[in-house]
Amino acid sequence: MTTTTTTTAVLDARTRLLLEGPIAPTLLKLAAPNVLVMVAQAAVGLIETYFVGKLGADALASMALVFPIVMLMQMTSAGAMGGGIASAIARALGSRRRDDANALVLHAIVIALGFAAVFTVALLLGGRWLYTQMGGSGESLAGALVYSHWVFAGAALVWLFNSLAAVIRGTGNMAVPANVTVAGVIVLIPLSPLLIFGWGPVPALGIAGGAIALLLYYLGGTLVLWAYLRSPRSLLAPRFAGIQLQWRLFRDILRVGLLGAISTFATNLSIGTATALAGRFGPDAIAGYGTAARLEYLLVPLVFGLGAPLLAMVGTCMGAGDRERAIRAAWIGAGLAFAMSEAVGLAASIWPRQWLLLFGHDAAMLDAGTQYLRMVGPLYGFFGVGLVLYFASQGAGRLLWPVLGNLARLAVAAIGGWLALRWGGGLDHVFLAQGLALVVYGCVIACAIAGGAWFGRVGWPRRPAALLRHVELSAERMAP
Questions:
Q1: Which of 38, 143, 305, 423 has the fewest C-beta atoms lying within 10 Å of its C-beta?
Q2: pTM above 0.70, yes or no
Q3: Torsions phi, psi of 202, nearest 5?
Q4: 2 lies in a domain?
Q5: How far apart are CA 446 and CA 453, in angstroms?
Q6: Contact call for residues 452 and 462 (beta carbons, < 8 A)
Q7: Are 196 and 51 in contact (CB under 8 A)?
Q8: Which one is predicted more confidently, 50 or 213?
Q9: Is residue 108 situated within a structural domain?
Q10: What residue numbers bound the domain in which 237 lies?
Q11: pLDDT digits (tens, 9 = 90+) for 204-230
């Protein structure tokens, strides 16, 4: 009895904080451990790249070929479908549907295993064709296939880890996933070079060792997250016995997660297309662009660190019917994300080689990466705005315009880069198209939300007072 009372009190306090606490301080308080976890998770990829880079330029190019697809899986499981999971649980708790919140855990696991199977089959069967289309050949293609086969054979571990972390974040608890991830990274730092280079009785596995270390990291994290959810400290009480799978609960996750997956696919296709366009200039250009673009990928977990509590806040407020607070939280989050992303981008454009030299010293690679960071880095703020408003839209359960914004980004990046090459442009013109695509991405999503996209048809521009009145009328129509 004591345990139940304590758990309910903690849940009520956390939900009340999302509904009533001052927005900016609350977001920053919840984001602090989440940013830590996301930086740690991004460090997983950077650690791998750092050690694999010691194997030579071909190995680095191999990683550049596979990395967009690995990030597609990572972002789909953590950001898109994970956002759908967290949003569904936050809205269930906000509307006091505790039984649905508990049942959603099993539904999330079923979805995770299904998507993991799709990634495994697709990449094991179609990996060679895909990496060839992206410009891979010779040693770089061979290394890409070795790394890809190992990683995607264990796709279920990545999906389960990110889905269980999303379940916990949906309750407003950002600390547990943070602690688990940081602890895992501490283990990964010695484990990755041990398996790549070997030591004593452990054989050198080369690029495959990096993939195996990554899978061991996800395996350990998954076990710890599940143990937490089954413990008395968890605000949810997931169980399998007596739970029947229900389409309405699948739909609650998928209606947000599937649209998010389209958006995530467009993001990674933009970078994959740019990788293929850079491949026209040789393996060194692929390595340079791929290494530089990892900084853009680093922004994804950084912004996600802020976006996850924003998603929980918006979802809880929408579930409770406080739509005015939800929209206000979105704009505060957008301002914070712009400042954070722009600071990273400006620093990278001023000191590009300091970043690139972490992963290699090949002159052609450094030149290509420097071109990218100097042209695209100053526009990273728009990427941050678009991405954090995407997470906020997940919480609101309204993802149409974030998806359209991402498709617009893909169109500008792909068509613009293709036209640049067709008209005799160089690598810098390809990168210019990538930068313009980020501006389009951020502006489309921000303008749509400013026009009332969460609450009906977009009627932009609207004055703030008119938008809030539109929110009030929408709330009145939707009230029971």
A1: 423
A2: no
A3: -85, 120
A4: no
A5: 10
A6: yes
A7: yes
A8: 213
A9: yes
A10: 18-478
A11: 888 888 889 889 999 999 999 999 998
